[in-house]
Design brief:
alpha+beta, Chemotaxis protein chec, 2 domains, four-stranded antiparallel sheet, 8 helices, 11 strands, elongated
Length: about 300
C-alpha cells in the first residue's frame, strides 16, 4: 500500500468513518415508458392536423416532440402565468390529464378563422370572449381526438373536468408530483410555430403504460379494466328517488272535514328545506326558479356516516 493510501486509511479509522454502501433505489424519473405513448402521439398528430385544417381552412403541420417525465412544479416554472388550460379524465383510466395551449395559438386561430390577418406574438394575460369560445372549442376537439387515439388499446369515455389559466392554481395534481409532458409543435403556413402540451399524472401514466405493455401471457390476478369500466358506467346510471318537504301544516279535524274543491291552503315561506334521498336527509336548501322551472338550491350538505 502506498504511503498516501496508508495515511488516508488511518485517518478514516481514527475518525470512525466507514466506507458506505449505496443500495439501489427506484427512481420514478426513470419510469420505463413503453412505445405505446409514442404511437399514440403520432396518431394524435395526424388527427390534430385534420381538426385544425377543417376549422381554419389552412394547411399546417403537427409534430410530436420528445416526451419528458418532470415534476409539476418544474414544468410550471418554465411556463408563463397565463395559458389556456383544460383538465380532463378518460374513464376508466385512473388519474387526470391536462391540455396546455399557448394563448397566442388561440388568438391566431381566431384571426385566421375570421380573416383578421397575422397576429403578432405577445405576452397575453386574458382572453376576449371570442377567444374564450375558440379555446373551448379547440381544446374540446383536441381532447376528443386524444381519447380516440387511445381507443386502439381500450375504449375511453372523456369528461372535461375544468378550465384554468394559471398552471400554479390549476386543479390538476400536487406541485411536487411527477407528470409526463408530451409536447406537440404546430406550424402554420406562414411559419408561425406554437407549442401545445399534454400532461398526464403519474397514475394515468401507469394505467396507460399497463395497457400498451406487451402481454406476458400470465394471469397476474389484476382486475379486468373493461369490467371495471362497465361497472363504473353502470353505477353512474343508477337512479335514486330525490324529494323535498315543502311544508308541514297542522289543522283541526273540523277544519279538515270542511275542506272542499277550490279551497286554498296557505303554505308559509320556509327556508332550510330538507333534500331527502333514500329516506335520509342528504342536504338542506331553498326553493327557487331556473330557466322557467322550479329549482332547489343546495346550501348545506348534511354530515352523515352513510347514505
Amino acid at each position: 500500500m502506498k504511503p498516501d493510501a496508508d495515511a488516508n486509511a488511518k485517518k478514516l479509522r481514527e475518525n470512525g468513518d466507514q466506507p458506505r454502501h449505496s443500495f439501489a433505489t427506484h427512481k420514478p424519473a426513470q419510469l420505463n415508458l413503453t412505445p405505446g405513448f409514442d404511437r399514440v402521439a403520432a396518431r394524435f398528430s395526424d388527427v390534430a392536423v385534420s381538426i385544425a385544417e377543417q376549422m381554419i381552412d389552412e394547411k399546417l403541420t403537427v409534430e410530436p416532440e420528445k416526451s419528458e417525465l418532470v415534476s409539476y412544479v418544474k414544468w410550471c416554472g418554465q411556463k408563463a402565468d397565463f395559458l389556456g388550460l383544460t383538465t380532463a379524465v378518460m374513464l376508466p383510466c385512473k388519474g387526470s390529464l391536462m391540455l396546455a395551449i399557448d394563448p397566442n395559438f388561440v388568438t391566431t386561430f381566431v384571426n385566421t378563422f375570421y380573416g383578421g390577418g397575422e397576429q403578432k406574438v405577445t405576452e397575453k394575460n386574458s382572453f376576449s370572449d371570442m377567444e374564450k369560445r375558440m379555446h373551448e372549442r379547440v381544446s374540446n376537439e383536441l381532447l376528443v381526438a386524444l381519447s380516440h387515439s387511445w381507443a386502439s388499446f381500450e375504449d375511453f369515455e372523456l369528461h372535461i373536468s375544468g378550465r384554468d389559466n394559471n398552471p400554479v392554481y390549476a386543479d390538476f395534481t400536487g406541485m411536487n408530483d411527477l407528470v409526463l409532458c408530451q409536447p406537440f409543435k404546430f406550424t402554420f403556413s406562414n411559419g408561425q410555430v406554437f407549442l401545445i402540451e399534454i400532461l398526464y399524472t403519474l397514475d394515468a401514466v401507469r394505467y396507460l403504460e399497463a395497457l400498451t405493455a406487451p402481454s406476458s401471457g400470465e394471469n397476474t390476478g389484476s382486475s379486468d379494466p373493461t369490467w371495471q369500466y362497465e361497472l363504473h358506467k353502470a353505477i353512474h346510471e343508477v337512479r335514486v328517488p330525490v324529494r323535498s318537504v315543502l311544508a308541514r301544516l297542522t289543522m283541526t279535524l273540523p277544519r279538515l272535514a270542511e275542506l272542499k274543491t277550490g279551497d286554498i291552503i296557505p303554505i308559509p315561506t320556509a327556508r332550510n328545506l330538507p333534500l331527502i334521498i333514500g329516506g335520509q336527509v342528504f342536504a338542506r336548501g331553498n326553493l327557487g326558479e331556473k330557466d322557467g322551472c322550479a329549482a332547489y338550491q343546495i346550501e348545506k350538505l348534511e354530515q352523515r356516516s352513510e347514505l
